[in-house]
Write a structure and sequence with these properties.
Layout: H1 3-16, H2 32-44, E1 50-54, H3 62-77, E2 81-85, H4 89-95, E3 99-103, E4 106-111, H5 113-120, E5 124-129, H6 132-142, E6 147-151, E7 154-159, H7 165-169, E8 178-181, H8 184-192
Parallel strand pairs: 1-2
Antiparallel strand pairs: 3-4, 5-7, 5-8, 6-7
Helix pairs in contact: 1-2, 5-8
Length: 198
């Protein structure tokens, strides 16, 4: 790449990353989010066909993260293949067409995000607090019907296509009941547990 082409491309990328007003600043004076955007701009200088990104949005606030994701989606639409390593399951679910989940150095799940979610945890998740003294009795009633995970005094029930929250909560009184769509976070926590792994 000639010097003139590199300079023109750098100007275009600084504009794309909304960094043109900071082009004369020292890198050390930029914020963490600006540094992340600058790293992406530098990676795109040669118009790569394949781009490897290691934890691309670590340290970014939610607004900057969503902006960054949008730019990565635009790269995908232009034909760039992205390989991303991330601890943010939401990021993987948002950006990746195919995912490999690792736990303790071993591959434990692989495939399209929605397929992994459906096969490991189902369609929806019901979460609720339960009295520890009633936990064993309640699990005894539901364990043949539902896949579940206990997280201290909180129980997560994973609902398959033919199951409803009403089925799961029949005759149960509990505060803080949540019904939500299943996610890759649920898959990872089900596979790895919720205790911290070193």
């Amino acid at each position: 790449m000639s010097r003139s082409v590199a300079k023109s491309r750098a100007i275009d990328l600084l504009s794309l990353m909304q960094l043109e007003d900071y082009s004369q600043k020292e890198i050390e004076t930029l914020s963490g989010g600006m540094k992340r955007r600058l790293v992406l701009a530098r990676a795109l200088l040669t118009k790569p066909k394949i781009l490897f990104l290691d934890e691309p949005t670590t340290g970014l606030d939610p607004q900057a993260r969503h902006w960054f994701w949008n730019e990565l989606r635009n790269l995908q639409k232009q034909g760039t293949t992205l390989f991303i390593t991330t601890h943010y399951m939401e990021e993987a679910e948002e950006l990746c067409g195919r995912i490999l989940i690792m736990n303790k150095g071993r591959a434990v799940a692989e495939g399209a995000p929605r397929d992994i979610i459906t096969s490991h945890v189902g369609r929806e998740v019901v979460e609720f607090d339960i009295d520890p003294e009633k936990m064993d009795q309640y699990i005894g009633q539901i364990k043949s019907k539902f896949s579940y995970q206990v997280m201290r005094n909180r129980l997560k029930l994973f609902l398959r296509d033919n199951q409803t929250a009403a089925d799961a909560l029949n005759e149960l009184s509990s505060p803080n009941i949540t019904l939500r769509k299943a996610s890759l976070n649920d898959v990872f926590l089900k596979i790895s547990g919720y205790e911290l792994n070193d």
